[in-house]
Amino acid sequence: MNLSPPIRDEYEITLTPLDNVPLERTLSLPQRIWQQGWVRKTVILLILALTWEVVARIQNNDLLLPGFVQTAQAFVDGIVTGELIGKVWISLKVLLKGYLIGIVLAFALTTLAVSTQLGRDLLSTLTSMFNPLPAIAMLPLALLWFGLGENSLIFVLVHSVLWALALNTYAGFLGVSDTLRMAGRNYGLRGLRFVLFMLVPAALPSILAGLRIGWAFAWRTLIAAELVFGASSGKGGLGWYIFQNRNELYTDKVFAGLAMVILIGLLVENLGFNVIERVTVKRWGMQR
Known about the structure:
Low-confidence stretches: none
Helix content: over 70%
Strand content: under 5%
Strand order of the largest sheet: 1-2
Number of helices: 12
Largest sheet: 2 strands, antiparallel
Structural class: mainly alpha
Radius of gyration: 28 Å
């Protein structure tokens, strides 16, 4: 009995060449330009500016709504005279101090949480208590404890950064796979070294999301706090600049201050967080 498989005859299928089909699509120059993200964003901003100017001219009341051109002039004047730049520098110095302290405390809490059961209970309890509490609501206590000055601003900034960053970082740590955890332990990583060299790189997308959220919370909390009592040590920041000009009915300067708040937010987002994501998590294939 022959158990060998049957041998099939070989044959070849001749394929018709696709001479009339282009191998790749060639984009025209306008299409290639439109593919650039900064071009599309610039167009959006120009449309918004044009809409703003049209609405302001229709309303025809500079006290309520100055036009884009008038606001741009006030913005340029503030830059040239140095007044606006000085206010921004005062605000950014305070913001940086509070932001960095919040990052250090959040990292300490999450490190403790992934290391011990007591740390997990502590983080869960504190975030449940304080994360829903608006940072600006802590301002009266800050004034009582630290007085009218920079320390009160730093206190509310730390509160605004700490809980959002701690929650995102801890969620990222929990999402690290068991395979990576076992690989780290096989390399002898323990304690703080395990967190720094294994958990932090693996959870970096969540950490960056927490940093971005913490930055947004801190920036708007600072402006709101300065609007309330922003003169510290005889000097006021960007929020105080907006508040003073509102009292003096310089509405164009108020809008110029708001435009500076938006501009700083765009710069930090596009030149800060987006660049960090591009050279880390996107380059490593952890994020699309």
